[in-house]
Design a protein that fits this description.
Blueprint lengths: L1 H42 L7 H14 L6 H19 L3 E5 L5 H10 L4 E5 L2 H10 L4 E8 L3 E2 L1 H9 L3 E9 L3 E4 L9 E4 L1 H6 L1 H7 L4 E4 L3 H10 L3 E5 L1 H7 L2 E4 L9 E8 L9 E8 L6 H11 L4 E8 L8 E8 L5 H13 L2 E9 L3
Parallel strand pairs: 1-2, 1-3, 7-8, 7-9
Antiparallel strand pairs: 3-4, 3-11, 5-11, 6-9, 6-10, 12-14, 12-15, 13-14
Helix pairs in contact: 1-3, 2-3, 11-12
Pathway: Amino-acid biosynthesis; L-phenylalanine biosynthesis; phenylpyruvate from prephenate: step 1/1; Metabolic intermediate biosynthesis; prephenate biosynthesis; prephenate from chorismate: step 1/1
InterPro entries: ACT-like_dom_sf (IPR045865), ACT_dom (IPR002912), Chor_mutase/pphenate_deHydtase (IPR008242), Chorismate_II_sf (IPR036263), CM_dom_sf (IPR036979), CM_II_prokaryot (IPR002701), G/b/e-P-prot_chorismate_mutase (IPR010957), Preph_deHydtase (IPR001086)
GO molecular function: chorismate mutase activity; prephenate dehydratase activity
């Protein structure tokens, strides 16, 4: 049996080895050209990382592929190839909500690739501050969840910063209940981020109603606490379980099996147009009849499709004033968007463009 198996596998493995030899040669050729690109960028003081260019490369390759590799495979492979090429020019850094093991860290690696220097921050506020101060070139912050909606603190901080959104990624969120022992014996409380507790509340009610629920700054912080105390359980991803040496007592406990969180990349660097872009803005309206309709009407008239509309109460001023957070298709340099934004600026009491960036594929 083994001899027959090996005899059939041998020629296939030899073909794979030959293809791998070609691939490594081509990858090194690609890396050399990337180094030449880096020298040109250096001469013109151009940024090393251009999200719109990398998105265009991945989209073009996905369109060229006849399979069997799927779009998600091509995206994952080429993100790492481009990340490795980038690191030959310069190691770039990104701040994320820490500690190590959070979904924010996972989103950072999924977006930038593994060849990036991560800076773990204790809060979303600190992510913004780190990028503004230059401690990191980019930041990764959660902006909305498919189950629990907007991440309020991120929305509030967009009002206070000059940073812009340069990219986005939607990450599947798979929550696991983890402990030191891999069981709930002797466990009295569960620690996790408030949104994660909310996303698992029905499962917890049905399967672990005795556990006290304690909100902490991040899921990774909950995992750290569980690693130090056998009476504590945490809700987090597999990455946190591995990092903190925990065992999964129950896997996939999120109430919504399609639970996803959208993260955005913030920096001082605006992204160019790709043809498949999205623009995010914040507006307030004048206190008059039909003000919201008048605000949105230019988008419809210029054929600009709105993809998200969120309201947040203003913390200063009138009790019933609101900021509206709007996402719509198109880049701020596209003619229909230029026209719509020009009219919005005239109608709105306040308008802030948070950025135009490639839409997640």
């Amino acid at each position: 049996m083994d001899d027959e198996l090996n005899s059939q596998l041998k020629p296939l493995r030899e073909r794979i080895d030959a293809i791998d030899a070609q691939l490594i040669s081509l990858l090194n050729q690609r890396a050399n050209v990337a180094l030449e690109v880096g020298e040109v960028k250096k001469h013109f003081n151009a940024p090393v990382f251009r999200p719109e260019r990398e998105m265009q490369v991945i989209a073009r390759l996905q369109d060229m592929s006849d399979g069997p590799l799927g779009n998600e495979h091509i995206s994952a492979i080429w993100r790492e190839i481009m990340a490795a090429s980038r690191s030959l020019e310069k190691t770039i850094s990104a701040a994320f909500l820490g500690p190590v093991g959070t979904y924010s860290e996972q989103a950072m690696y999924a977006y930038f690739g593994q060849s990036i220097e991560g800076l773990a921050c204790p809060s979303i506020d600190e992510v913004f501050r780190s990028v503004e101060a230059g401690a990191a070139e980019f930041g990764v912050v959660p902006v909305e969840n498919s189950t629990e909606g907007a991440v309020s603190r991120t929305l509030d901080l967009f009002l206070e910063t000059q940073l812009v959104i340069g990219g986005e990624i939607a990450l599947p969120i798979q929550h696991n209940l983890m402990t030191q022992s891999g069981t709930l014996q002797g466990v009295t409380r569960v620690c996790a981020h408030p949104q994660s507790l909310a996303q698992c509340q029905h499962w917890l009610n049905a399967n672990a109603p005795h556990l006290e629920r304690q909100a902490v700054a991040s899921n990774a912080e909950g995992a750290r606490l569980a690693a130090a105390d056998p009476t504590v359980a945490a809700i987090a991803g597999e990455r946190a379980a591995t990092h903190y040496g925990l065992l999964i007592a129950n896997a996939l406990i999120q109430d919504d099996p399609h639970n996803r969180t959208r993260f955005v990349m913030i920096s001082k660097q605006a992204a160019g147009a790709t043809g498949k872009d999205q623009t995010s803005i914040i507006v307030t309206v004048k206190n008059e009849s039909g003000a919201v309709y008048k605000l949105l009407e230019p988008l419809a008239r210029h054929g600009v499709s709105m993809t998200r509309f969120e309201s947040r109460p203003a913390r200063l001023g009138s009790t019933w004033e609101y900021y509206f957070y709007i996402d719509f298709e198109g880049h701020r340099d596209d003619a229909p968007v230029v026209a719509a934004l020009d009219e919005l600026g005239q109608k709105a009491a306040f308008l802030k463009i948070l950025g135009s960036y490639p839409r997640a594929r």
